[in-house]
Each structure stands twice: as structure tokens, then as C-alpha cells.
Design a protein that fits this description.
Layout (H helix, E strand, L loop, with lengths): L1 H7 L26 E2 L5 H11 L6 H7 L14 H22 L5 H12 L1 H11 L7 E2 L11 H20 L1 H11 L16 H11 L6 E8 L7 E8 L2 E8 L2 H17 L34
Antiparallel strand pairs: 1-2, 3-4, 4-5
Length: 301
């Protein structure tokens, strides 16, 4: 019954196309040797830090975070190492949040959600909000046809470097606070990563694994069956419990969407209260840490 209640939990579905790789497929075209630089004035860096509330102790580490390896500025280290560090900090804190908040989510979907919510593409949008496109130093490779570096990628990796700089200069708690404030403060939309090739078969396998009645589809409503624009609404049921619903211009399409809806309702269930392992590192943490129970729910065909 608990499983059925999870399936009955409402969850919004949005028709958002999914790209398995969330990195931009086509890079922003730039002219050969066009240098994208901005002077590191004390006023500019100070204003940037004030906007984000980041009082760096070491100003040079911030300059390094904003310096791409292509800039080749004498006296300033590029952001390669900070990118490496920041990426791992982001993966740690966002990853543990996803694992705790969505306990039924299979591992492959967890990885997809991690990339979708905090990968280079998502971080590049955040960079533009910060105004990093006016601060970073970088230039395209000399051979235009060999260029694999576009503005989106550079901006996204600069945010990784910024997180690495915060981690290095201000400590892990400040880095975590930054990630929570700018990446985890909004409600996550998991619908783009919930793609299934055969949702009906997967739902049957999941039901068998969870020991509930085999799901069956039932017509709920229909209109215009013999016209050029029919609409069918199909419900997916386990016993007497409706666990999913879908519509379409054909019965097959409606059934497909109903099965997918049932899977999203189950795998997309959100835990309202949960513990985060890294919370024990907070200096104000004064309660007993209770780990979340690990779930094993994927139903692979």
C-alpha cells in the first residue's frame, strides 16, 4: 500500500526534450584570436565580491578563478586547478542533496539530474546572472575550425573555478553555502531527465519487484474517435488504485504517457525532511546525525 500511495502522489509533467549530454552541442562562434578580456581593476573585483557577498582574503585567487588557461597573463595562474576542485565540491554537495531528497531515484537518473542541475550548461546561465561574461579573461584557439571552446563552456567552468576559489580561500562551509544559495535554493524540475524507452514494461517490472498488482490501462475519457483530431485519456491502475494518467491522439500514445506518469510519480517522490551527511561539518550542528535509509528501487528490463 505504501508503494501505491507513492505512485498516487501528484507530480507535474512537462514536455521538455532531453539531450543525453547537457553540454551545448554547438558552441558560440567567435572570430579567430578574438580576445575576451576585462581589466582586473580593484573597483571591479570589489563590486563583484560585494554583489555575491564573498569577501576573499586573497584577491589573487579570485583573479586566477576568472583567468582561463588561454589568456596567458603573466603573473596570474589560470583557473585549471580551481576548476578541478570546484567541480568536485559541487558534485559532492549537490549529489548528496539529490540522493537524500529523491530516495527512489535510480542511480543513472541521479547522475542525469546532477548534470542537468549543476553541469556546465546550468552553470553558464548562473555565470551570466553574475555578470562573469564581462570579467573573465579568455580567448579562442588560433585555428577557428579546431575551436572546441565556446562562451557557454568557458562561463560554466569559470563558475566551477569560482566555487574552487571559495573552497580554497574561505573554506568548505562557505563553498557549501554558496552552492546551496545559488544552485539548490530553487525547486528542482526532474521531468527533463525522466525519459523511458518502454515505460509500460518498466512499470510492470517495478510492480512485480514491489509485490503489488500488475498495472493495467483503462480508458477514462475520449472524444472525436472518428475525426481527424481525436483525444484519448487513459488511466494506469494497480488494482483499484489509479497510479498514472496520460492523454494522446491515439490510445497507444495515451497509454505510453500514463505509464510514464506512474513512473515519474514513484521515482520523483520528494522527501520533505531528510539528513545531509555534510551537515555534521557545520560548526552549529549540535544534534545526533541520523542517516537516511538507502533505497533499492530501479526496475531494469
Amino acid at each position: 500500500m505504501k508503494f501505491i500511495k507513492l505512485l498516487q502522489t501528484s507530480y507535474p509533467i512537462k514536455n521538455i526534450p532531453l539531450a543525453r549530454s547537457y553540454a551545448a552541442k554547438s558552441v558560440h562562434r567567435i572570430q579567430p584570436n578574438k580576445v575576451r578580456t576585462a581589466p582586473f581593476t580593484r573597483e571591479g573585483l570589489s563590486a563583484f565580491q560585494s554583489r555575491l557577498g564573498l569577501p576573499f582574503n586573497n584577491q589573487s585567487i579570485l583573479e586566477s578563478a576568472l583567468s582561463h588557461s588561454s589568456a596567458e597573463e603573466e603573473g596570474i595562474e589560470d583557473n585549471s586547478k580551481l576548476i578541478w576542485l570546484g567541480k568536485r565540491a559541487i558534485n559532492l554537495y549537490v549529489g548528496e542533496y539529490i540522493e537524500a531528497k529523491y530516495p527512489n531515484l535510480p542511480v543513472d537518473k541521479m547522475q542525469d539530474l546532477l548534470e542537468y542541475s549543476s553541469g556546465v550548461q546550468a552553470l553558464s546561465s548562473l555565470a551570466r546572472i553574475f555578470g562573469l561574461q564581462f570579467l573573465i579573461k579568455w580567448k579562442a584557439p588560433e585555428m577557428f575550425e579546431d575551436s572546441k571552446i565556446g562562451e557557454t563552456k568557458v562561463l560554466g567552468k569559470t563558475v566551477q573555478a569560482l566555487v574552487g576559489a571559495i573552497y580554497q580561500d574561505l573554506g568548505k562551509n562557505e563553498a557549501k553555502n554558496f552552492i546551496y544559495k545559488h544552485l539548490l535554493s530553487l525547486k528542482m524540475d526532474i521531468s527533463p531527465i525522466m525519459q523511458f524507452n518502454e515505460p509500460k514494461r518498466m512499470l510492470v517490472a517495478l510492480s512485480k519487484r514491489r509485490n503489488i498488482e500488475k498495472p493495467v490501462s483503462r480508458m477514462l475519457k475520449e472524444t472525436g474517435r472518428f475525426t481527424s483530431s481525436p483525444v484519448f485519456i487513459v488511466g494506469m491502475f494497480s488494482g483499484e488504485h489509479k497510479i498514472g494518467e496520460g492523454f494522446g491522439s491515439s490510445i497507444k500514445m495515451a497509454e505510453y504517457r500514463a505509464a510514464k506518469d506512474a513512473l515519474i510519480r514513484y521515482y520523483g517522490r520528494e522527501e520533505k525532511e531528510f539528513s545531509i551527511p555534510s551537515s555534521t561539518e557545520d560548526p552549529n550542528f549540535n544534534s545526533e546525525y541520523v542517516p537516511n535509509n538507502l533505497r533499492d528501487t530501479p526496475a531494469y528490463l
